[in-house]
């Protein structure tokens, strides 16, 4: 909590980029930027002709050259390669942007497995701070107009859909509080402590008129438990408190809507006969087919449940829409805003998702009216500003309609036109079982704790183990995802059963196909690409027997690459690479050799190549390593090969797969995996307390 003499909501990329540039130009000693993504090529400004200027990387280098005492620090998420398709090649490799020596660019790789650094914070001299949903990166810039086609919305020569987001700008003690959050994250990620220096200049952008004056600003964060640091769930607590205290209305504007805790809290308010009106504004479509069958389905389940509980007609879900958008696109609503009763205004980085409540690092700001009429009016204006933008209206009209109709949803429906407005969110049906299964891997609430899995060898609940850890689930999910892709994406017209069968028949004729599959396992294992998909391709191309033999050879080769990498380094260096959380994997492998290698491959308690590197570093016998890897990987590989063979037969002959054979293969593998888990439980019981 901190006092801000000035605070203002900054809406959309054009305004944020302009304000950020103006503030950074006034920086004297420090610019600290925390980001989920950062792209040095991003233009901060555009002229009337649509030409971009001030690419952020060049702009920061110029500032560093201009002010010798200025230090610029950028902390970016150390993302997995699967998220790297739209990202700039890492500047640390020296092949793209080269930061000035006073511009420190670092990656945050301290997040737990499956988590991410998701805070979007910009602090200038500890005097002002921006917090919200916007990164200075590609595909974020847009204007309030959100025109269907705008030449300035361009990335790598391709246009992108309209993009809407919100930041909050604060100064004073509130900015200092945010600066402490940012400096703490920098220290945790890099080990370096940022010194503070007194400055004389006010970096507040002159063109930004403060909407709030002399207000208290709360700071809410999410930090997962890791490496001795306690879990912080203030983001979730603040959401639940605001929902519980709202009397008249709750306005939610968010990219996602998948949090089970938030859904239950809103449902409880809908059960009340005189509870608040609840208006959700979210994105219509998802980013790609994978998100469509994960986050989209989770949202569908929660929205459906709330509508069923809404006996009093107070829940409304909308999405912004503009006439003229290309088919398959929508207004990309990326904001994270909550407003309640003209009493609370909240802007931040946290999505209404499970992972934002407990897994990813997040930061939100909240302003409370505290009984002041001027603050209540400013919060109401902030809400009406967003409604006016989405409905292509003006604040005065929104205020007048609200006074007459008394309902936000009624105003939305009255002001929306065919050209632009908000439409009722309609989603397809989805079973509760499917949504819960997807939530367990697509939107986890807690870190996927490798250290606990390793430290305890196996969870106490063996039934939970059989549900969550059996590797064959990955194969099934991959097959389901591909099936949905072929069913609901343009792939259905390209990848037909006959074309796949024809490809499989031709693939084995190319001399380079077998070496390609053999080699593919090595890079795939380092970037955590699902190896069963390569196995399926191998079986489809060469048949079950040859394909399985080729696959196990490729897997063993990939494992040996990791093993000899571990042998090449000293143990201390490997320890720093894999982290202290892998200590018990190391201890387990040292004590049990061949048996341990077999079990950690059969029931993976750490990433494939992490285990390989550890085994090499601690000098596990090469024979035990190779035999254990083969024995542990073989059951899953055989199950995948059987599945692939049945799929190929169905493609060629048009028949249904033999479900008895597929089921038997899966059952055998599940039985072996379950037996491995039982052994781990017994091993745990033998250890002294």
Provide structural commentary:
It is a single chain. The chain has 689 residues and is α+β, with helices and mostly antiparallel strands. The protein is 49% helix and 17% strand. The strands form 4 sheets. The chain has a 16-stranded mixed β-sheet that branches. The longest helix has 32 residues, at 622-653.
Topology:
Layout (H helix, E strand, L loop, with lengths): L1 E10 L1 H13 L4 E6 L7 E4 L5 E4 H11 L4 E7 L25 E6 L12 E4 L3 E5 L21 E2 L2 E2 L3 E2 L1 E6 H19 L21 E12 L8 E2 H12 L3 E6 L5 H12 L5 E5 L6 H5 L2 H15 L5 E8 L9 E2 L2 E5 L3 E5 L5 H5 L3 E7 L4 H18 L4 H11 L2 H8 L4 E5 L7 H11 L7 H7 L5 H7 L3 H17 L2 H4 L2 H11 L5 H15 L3 H12 L1 H25 L2 H8 L4 H20 L5 H10 L4 H32 L5 H28 L3
**Spans of at least 5 consecutive residues with low confidence:** 449-480, 576-582, 683-689
Biggest sheet details: 16 strands, mixed
Strand content: 15-25%
Mean pLDDT: 81
Number of strands: 22
Number of helical segments with 4 or more residues: 25
Distance between the termini: 43 Å
Class based on secondary structure composition and strand pairing: alpha+beta
Radius of gyration: 27 Å
Helix content: 40-55%
Shape: globular
Quickly list its features.
689 residues; alpha+beta; 16-stranded mixed sheet
Quick description:
The protein has 689 residues and is α+β, with helices and mostly antiparallel strands.
